[in-house]
Amino acid sequence: MSRVQRGNSAQIQKARTFGARTVWLWTLANSLAGLAVGGAIHLFVQGDISARGLIPMSIVFANVVGFAAVLTAKFVLPKYSGLPVFLRIPLAGLTLVAGGVLGSGLAILVNPLVVLYQLRLGLMVLTVNGVLALAVGLVTYTYEQMRTQIERDASERGKLEYEMNIARDIQMELLPKTFPKLPGLDMYAFTVPARHVGGDCYDVIDIGDGKLAITIGDVSGKGTPAAILMANVQAAVRALSESNVPAAELITRVNKLVHGYTEDSVFITFFYSVLDTRTGELVYVNAGHNPPCILRRDGSRDYLDRGGLVVGVMSGSEYDEGRALLHAGDDLVLYTDGVTEAENTEDEMFGEERLEQLLVEHRHASAREIEEQVYSSIKDFAAGAPQTDDLTMVIVKMTAGDGTEETIDAPDPPGLANGGPPAARGAPATGALWGPATAEGRTELAN
Predict the structure, then answer these.
(1) Which of 267, 341, 421, 435 is deepest in the core (most CB within 10 A)?
(2) What is the pTM of this model?
(3) Residue 125 pLDDT more than 70?
(4) What domains are defined for the chain?
């Protein structure tokens, strides 16, 4: 016998044992109820010898009606679920009455002489047990309805969970699987949705001639609607970037697109930039997003806040381009507000000051190490408080222009975001980030 067959056999045996045990327990419960009714009537007639025969009659009646109620609730009443209430309730009552009639007949057969000579007592026990039968039937029917609803809800939740996991996988597939391998760069990024899917996104697009389009965005709201909107925006930005549309014009077009196809309450904070890796020149537009930070090699900081309104609020919004220059040893840090607004159990925010302190303290580490440090610090700070917003961060470190000088103690070569498919989903149980996925990286970690 195979392992599967043995497992199936064990499950069948377990089901049979459970079924037999349930029947015996239900029989015992009905017998005790019948004994209680018969005994009560026996005491009511002050121990009349002829009334003792009512006790076995009551026990038989209670068992017959009890099992009739179970069978009615399990097999008969579900057939009435589609009928109107004024038909369903009388039919349900008739099935219980039928069980009571059957129980009455069997109870009389147990001791017909008692009913013959003590008609009043016989009618009393049948009446009391009849009321008890209706109560048992009502309780049983209610239980079956609740159990069915719970099973249905559990099944629907399971399907929803499965569909949300698929949606999450699809969303993660839209994020970069590889970063462009250009000399003089060390890049790393992560996103951790607050729910199955999130409204944050980032991208690094090779647009040719040594230029990279580096983006990050955050849709108002969370969950599936935000994720769908961000996926559309991300697709539009990729198409426009690869067509070498200027930064300000690109955001203008995206703004008109979002405003034209969404409600007025929906908006996106978005940062779009183009980095010339040969010269270090950065052209950017900040549409209401948290100002990215350029952390200079000497520890000073510049913030990229030039641009305009958030995307989607006004169709005619105009945007200005900003410019900056990155040198070897400088870090470009992009993040969403979920990082700085992460809260602990005392409703205190992580804040920009803590983030800047971490960036300065670890500025000589690799991009991957910095993001792992930021993420673990946020988790330690939250101290078990639920994550209320998506966390996303992108770091681009400028190393030597010729690619010969690497970041100190970098675990991965510059220009390569090593990791596996779970990377973009966030952190594994160890608390360390896996980073954006590569087609070949650590795919075994997904299992």
Answers:
(1) 435
(2) 0.61
(3) no
(4) 3-165 (no CATH), 176-438 (3.60.40.10)
